[in-house]
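Researcher: Structure for this, please.
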Amino acid sequence: MEEYQEDNYYEDYGNDTGYMGCDDSDWELSFSLLPVLYMLVFVLGLSGNGVVIFTVWRGRPKRRSADTYIGHLALADLAFVVTLPLWAAYTALQFHWPFGSALCKLSSYLVLLNMFASVFCLTCLSLERYLAIVRPLPAGRPRSRGALRLSLASIWALAGLLALPALMLRDTQTRNNVTVCDMDFSSVSSPENERLWIGGLSLLTTALGFVLPLLLMTAFYCFIGGRVSAHFQGLKEGPKRRRLLRIIVALVVVFALCWLPFHLLKTIYFLNLLEVLNLSCGLQSLIVRLHPYATCLAYINSCLNPFLYAFFDPRFRAQCLQLLHIKKALQGQLSNMSSTVSAQTQKSELHSLATKV
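Model: Predicted structure, C-alpha cell format:
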C-alpha cells in the first residue's frame, strides 16, 4: 500500500534492483505543476462532493438504493480530498514532510480507504443494476433496506481493513536531512525481505482494489447488455433506467481510465523489483518520472464524479440547482428584468402618445 504517494521507493531499493547508475530524479516541473493540480482537485472535489452528499441526504424520502451508493462514493472522495493540501505541500517541498507522524499515517490511510471504498461502491452499484434488470423482484416488492445497510457496512469495513497497512506501517523517516512519509517494514521484516513485502502488498492492492472489481463490473454489464433492450421496451420507466445505467457505466469507465496508468506503472516497477522483469535503465527512469503524474491522474478521479452526475442526470442537476437556490435567483432576476422592460415600454408608449397629441 506504500506506493500511493510520490515517495522515493525507486531510490530506496536501487542497489538491489539494477537502479544504481540510473537517473531516478523527478522532473523539476513536477515540484511546481503537481501542487497546483492537487489544489485544483481539492477545491473542485471538496465543493462537488459536498454538494452530492447534501443533495442525496436531502432526497432521503425518495432516495433510490443507487443514490445511497453514490452518496457513499462521494463521502469516500471527500474524505480523501481533504488531505490533498498536505500532499501538495509535500510535493512542493520536494518530498519533505513537515506535518508529523500522525498526519503521515492518517493521510496515507485515507488515500487507500478512498480507493478501496470507491471501487467497492462502484461494484455494488453495478451489482444493484444487474439485480434490478437481470434478476428483478416481483412488481411492487422493494429490495430489503437491511441488505443495503449490510452491503454499505461491508464496503467500509473491508476498505478500512485493506487500508490498515498504511496506517500501521507508514511513518516519518529522516533521510539525507529530509523527512519523508514512507513505509517502515523494520517491525515486520528483515531488510533483505523488504522488497518481497513491498511487491506483495503492491500486487495485492492492485488485484483487490482494481483488477478483480473491474472484472466483476465488466461481467455485470455484459449480463445487463444481453437483457437491456428487451427489458426496457416493456417498461414505462425505461428512459430513467437507461439514464441511471449510463451514469454508472460512465463512473466505472472514468474510474478505470484514471486509475489504470497508476496501477500499470507500479505493477511494472514492482515486477522489476521482484526480478520478474528486467527493465532497461531508460525505462526505469521513465517510470520514476511518470509515477507522480499517474498518481495525480488517479487523484483527479475524486473530483470528476460530481460532474458526471451533473452531465448525465437531469434529476441530479435540478436538485443541485434547487439546493444552491440558483433557480430562485434566476427567477428573481428574470422577474426584475421583465419589470424593467415593462416599465421602459410603458414610458416609451407614453412618450409616443405625447408626441402624437
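Researcher: Any notable elements?
Model: The CA atoms of residues 309 and 315 lie 9 Å apart. The radius of gyration is 26 Å.
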